C-alpha cells in the first residue's frame, strides 16, 4: 500500500462537538439514551420504557389545565418558625432553609393552590412540589390545602390534588403532625358538601401526607411505579 492510499487518522481531542450539549439524556430507569426534546414533549415520560420523571408543581399545572385558565390563590401564606428551631452548635436556621427553598423553586411553599379549567370543566387545584424541602407538610401547607378545600365547597367545584411528599416537616414539631387531622377534617367537609375530591399520587407520596389527605380521595389515581407509603 502506497503512502497516499493509507487511511489518515486525525485526533479530535479538544475539538468542539457539532452536537449541542443537552441534546440527549439518559433515562434513569432503562439507562438508554433518549432525545431530551422527545422526553419533554412526552410530558417527561421516557418514550422507550414509560418511566415518569418528577415534575415541579408549575410543570404539572401547565400540563394539566387549559391554557391561560389557572389563577393562583393563597400565595401569601408562608411558613413561620413556631419553635425557634435550631440544632446545637450547627448553624441551622429553619427560616433560612425555607428562604433558600423559595429562591430555588420560585415558590412560597411546597404546595400551589388555585382555580383552573380541565378540558373546559372548572376545578380547584392543590399541587405539591417535592423540590420544596421534600414536599414536607408544615402549618403553611396544611392551611393552604384547607383553604383550597373551602374554596371548592364555596364554589361547588371539584378539588383536584396532586401529591408529592416525604412526610411531615420536623422543624415544626407537633404542629406539623396536627396538619394530618386538620387536612383530613377539610376532606370531611368536602364529603358532607357532596363536592368531588380527586387525588393523583405522584412519586413519592409518603408519611403524614399519605396518612391524611392523600389517601382520602373519592377517586384516587397514581403515576406508574410511584413510591407510595
The secondary-structure class comes to alpha/beta
- What distance separates the N and C termini? 70 Å
Biggest sheet: strands, sense, closure?
A: 6 strands, mixed
Q: Unreliable stretches, pLDDT < 50, 5 or more residues? A: none
Shape, please?
globular
Total helices: the number is 6
Q: Strand content of the residues, in percent?
A: 15-25%
β-strand number: 8
Sequence of secondary-structure elements: EEHHEHEEHEHEHE
Characterise the protein shown here.
The protein is of the alpha/beta class. It is built from six helices and eight strands. The strands form two sheets. A six-stranded mixed sheet has the order 3-4-5-6-7-8, with helices on both faces. It has a two-stranded antiparallel sheet with strand order 1-2. Helix 4 packs parallel to helix 5. The termini are far apart.
Amino acid at each position: 500500500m502506497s503512502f497516499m492510499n493509507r487511511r489518515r487518522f486525525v485526533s479530535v481531542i479538544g475539538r468542539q462537538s457539532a452536537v449541542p450539549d443537552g441534546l440527549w439524556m439518559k433515562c434513569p430507569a432503562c439507562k438508554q439514551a433518549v432525545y431530551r426534546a422527545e422526553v419533554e414533549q412526552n410530558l417527561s415520560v421516557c418514550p422507550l420504557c414509560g418511566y415518569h420523571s418528577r415534575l415541579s408543581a408549575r410543570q404539572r399545572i401547565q400540563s394539566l389545565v387549559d391554557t391561560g385558565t389557572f389563577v393562583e390563590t393563597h400565595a401569601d401564606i408562608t411558613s413561620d418558625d413556631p419553635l425557634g428551631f435550631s440544632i446545637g452548635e450547627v448553624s441551622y436556621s429553619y427560616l433560612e432553609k425555607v428562604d433558600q427553598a423559595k429562591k430555588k423553586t420560585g415558590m412560597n411553599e411546597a404546595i400551589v393552590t388555585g382555580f383552573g379549567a380541565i378540558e373546559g370543566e372548572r376545578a380547584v387545584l392543590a399541587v405539591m412540589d417535592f423540590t420544596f424541602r421534600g414536599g414536607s407538610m408544615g402549618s403553611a401547607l396544611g392551611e393552604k390545602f384547607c383553604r383550597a378545600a373551602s374554596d371548592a365547597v364555596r364554589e361547588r367545584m371539584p378539588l383536584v390534588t396532586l401529591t408529592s411528599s416525604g412526610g411531615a416537616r420536623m422543624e415544626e414539631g407537633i404542629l406539623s403532625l396536627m396538619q394530618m387531622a386538620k387536612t383530613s377534617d377539610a376532606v370531611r367537609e368536602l364529603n358532607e358538601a357532596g363536592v368531588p375530591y380527586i387525588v393523583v399520587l405522584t412519586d413519592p407520596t409518603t408519611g403524614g401526607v399519605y396518612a391524611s389527605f392523600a389517601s382520602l380521595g373519592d377517586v384516587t389515581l397514581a403515576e406508574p411505579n410511584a413510591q407510595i407509603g
